[in-house]
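Support request, please re-run this one:
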Amino acid sequence: MTTIEQKYLEATKNILEKNLKIYDDIYRDFPVVLVYDLDSPISRELSKGYIENLKNHPLSEVIDFSSANKEDLKTKLLSLQENSTVILVQSTNFMLDDFRIRLNLNNAGVGCLEHRHLAYIYDDQVENYADAIEYNTPLYEELGAKLKLLSDKAETMTFICNDGSTLKVEGGFEDMKLNTGNYEGRNRGGNFPIGENFTESKDFSKVNGELTIYAFPNEKLQVEFCEPFKIKINESIVTCDDSKCPPNFRKILDFIALSENNEVMFRELGFGLNPGISRQKPIADINAYERQCGFHMSLGKKHQIYRSKMHKSVVQRYHIDVFPDINEIFIDDKLVFVKDKFVI
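Re-run finished. Output below.
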């Protein structure tokens, strides 16, 4: 029987060798730096796995964040040669930069992979996280490519919830983006777990219908599950008059509306591909849970990838993922998802 420790050892080995490709010809002669903390059960398991797998790398260095000077560490990382590699194992967020340190490292040609917010994940989900970071890039590439091929030329998507509530999105879709873990060039690295495709409607006025929501983030950025309740979407604007609407979800709507012209907009159509995450095997961190095998949507006008669609004068402050209780998804007339599984 595979132990949790063995799962983490195998997963971190695959991340280093198959995702970050530290032994490929182009990267093998450059430093690999692991920065970690031991402040949560998952950070301890991850750190142990990475440290063991880096023992035979001649240019590896492991740094305990608790004993490092933050400014010196930041300078060290930003001074690394192009083609070097950085792994950050963070119970919360090291906050090494005003901006995301990973993006600054990528811009310098340094690969960077992050595990963040590990302390947000409950102790009984340690094995779930190990399953979520298992090497599945070939699956994500195959399934992701099929979804992208359909989405990029589609005119309509239809989302049907378990209670029959239906959302119809018409008018075509933006270029679908993939997060598969097949890292190349200056974008080597990312935020684990992985496994996601996303897009959005080309015409916000053609996003209409109803959905039921079963999960959303609380104020601690942890997933809060609830009895499904109904939201209404009219030309991408979300409202909720369901008496079952949880107070914490109402707070999200009010919070967004306060900053974004007294309305809450629905933007991202997110397709999680990760078989290691599900309602039955959740991960409490909201940023990890969006990779769950199924569908999620974003509330708020902010979208880093498709930002230019809106005039810069429009306040785009929030992007908050929530989770509809989906039974079926159609792209045009093709069924692609049913009962918690993709069927393409």
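The longest helix spans residues 137-153. The chain has two domains: 4-132, 137-342.
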